[in-house]
Amino acid sequence: MPAGSHPETRSVKGNNTCRIAVHRPSNGNTVVVLSVIDNLVKGASGQAIQNLNLMFGFDEHMGLNAPALMP
Q: What kind and span of H or E run contains 44?
């Protein structure tokens, strides 16, 4: 993500992406990494579907393009 920005959970809702931002507070020796995912899609259940697709030769994203979401 662009420098100085923070990932927001609403930006990953219902999709199979991970948003990552890296910060170095006060230009010190510490690096802070922020990441957000949609656990229903990118979490264990989404990973299981993605792995199944790869194992059986299907398109990697099959079944992940339209995940069930609560209204």
A: helix 44-55
